[in-house]
Amino acid sequence: MKRYEELAPLSREHNRALLLARNARRAAGTGDPRRIREAWEALACAFRDEMRAHFATEERLVLTLLTELGEHDLAERLWREHRAMARNIGDPALWTRDRLAVLADVLHEHVRVEERRVFPLVQRHGSPALLAALADHPDAGDAATERRSAD
């Protein structure tokens, strides 16, 4: 199914999240403390600049739709994963090699589920108002590019 343009900002952020997950997995695999720390710092930066707003948009709009469609378990799973990722990324005391590897896997699978299961449901059942609200989600990657261009 071709992705609706209204979901493009979230899908672009998903692509960046997949790159973060891949880099985190690789860093964890090296066992190099410097690379592990850099991967955690990249995740923390992405969370601050992009993921927090992304999660909020999904929770406000997408998880509400899933609940209305009776997809309670899926909505709960995604919400729990958002909370777990935020908790782990937000607490440097938890920044270990093992947690980085697990987080990389969770982030990767989370994005895949949203792209393959959730977004098709949104496209089939989302109201025009919901799709318009999703289209208004600011694409943090575009904003970051604009900030760099202005410097």
Annotation field: number of helices: 6
Q: Which segments are poorly predicted (pLDDT under 50) over 5 or more consecutive residues?
A: 143-151
Strand content of the residues, in percent? under 5%
Terminus-to-terminus distance? 39 Å
Number of domains: 1
Integer average pLDDT: 92
| Order of helix and strand elements from N to C terminus | HHHHHH
What class would the helix/strand composition place it in?
mainly alpha
Number of strands: 0
The portion of residues assigned to helices is over 70%
Q: Can you describe what's shown?
A:
The structure is a single chain. This protein is mainly alpha-helical and 151 residues long. It has one domain (5-142). It is 83% helix and 0% strand. It contains 6 helices and no strands. It has helices spanning 8-30, 33-68, 72-90, 97-125, 128-135, 140-150. Helix 3 packs antiparallel against helix 4 (97-125). The longest helix has 36 residues, at 33-68.
Task: Provide a concise account of the structure shown.
By secondary structure, this protein is mainly α.
Keywords:
single chain; 151 residues; disordered C terminus; 0% strand; mainly alpha
Write the layout of secondary structure elements.
Layout lengths: L7 H23 L2 H36 L3 H19 L6 H29 L2 H8 L4 H11 L1
Helix pairs in contact: 1-2, 1-4, 2-3, 2-4, 3-4
